[in-house]
């Protein structure tokens, strides 16, 4: 389970011993070159020019890493040594903005394939699939265009093609048969006493593969005060995560998904009851703060979308932090889903809280409205989501994610930093 705003609850995992697959020369070459990049990042971090904004440095390092992984994955089995060297060269020369846009294109290519397979599994026949795809009247923009922003979101009609009456378990098995992998939630292999559920890859993926979606309700900074439990939103909810741009996703309402395709707005469906036995008792000052700063009430937009709750990959919120001595095998990646893709929308397990994104600017620890829509003028509206991508080849094992908890707050005893410097830069 994940929480990346200030604190997180239970996790860790024991390393499962598997026989490694043969490693190709190109994989070794990429590993060697990527190691050189990591060393360069550590050197760059000490440069005085970055001392004022280490958080931006870590953001750029993550983007560079994601660019390498996702670009390598897109080359697939056709990759050769020259291709690997070209990827590294592009990563060293391309701007952060260009790399971000290419990452979006790489992810979108994978997710579109996933959505097509889900259509084959759930839509009864080819005729119905064609009718479903024709619902989109806006042509798809590929490449860099869809990564630039968002305007007023397009809403799906609550009516759509009928789907086969398959359970979530049946859909998951069929996805594995066609895609080569699926996900299962079961007790973590973590030996720590606070370990809970974990999410396991059932199958095989290569580096850079999209392995999971982070589901739930997306709150832009303008709507932070509507997050349940505000201002101490983590007190009873370990299923929150924050993107670098400030958007927060609450996966608690999603729970384990469901067995239907339905209109969903993230209210009281599938809510997970977190185990908060170790929580500190509430002090008088805490109660007073709650009274002064309790979450706002009201129906802000009530965005409802037709969502496929049987999505077998919508389980990223169960990923655990690795124990001491074990490296993560996945990392968080922002994915800005283009809402013009009506035929894919049902498989993106997120809804936006509020009527539209409000343009906000951060000053210190506070966000302020600056007027207008955040993406006014943008031609492609997007939904700000997150996915997990593999940082190496993964086969039949638990997914492990570096939580990067803030070092300014008390960390749980199970938390061992993967890289203390990265944690410090991320929350500086």
From TrEMBL:
Q: Where is this region: Disordered?
A: 132-171
Query: Compositionally biased, Polar residues: which spans?
Result: 154-171
The record's listing under InterPro entries reads: SET_dom_sf, SETD9
Q: Supply the PANTHER family for this chain.
A: C5ORF35, SET DOMAIN-CONTAINING PROTEIN
Protein known as? Uncharacterized protein LOC113869011 isoform X1
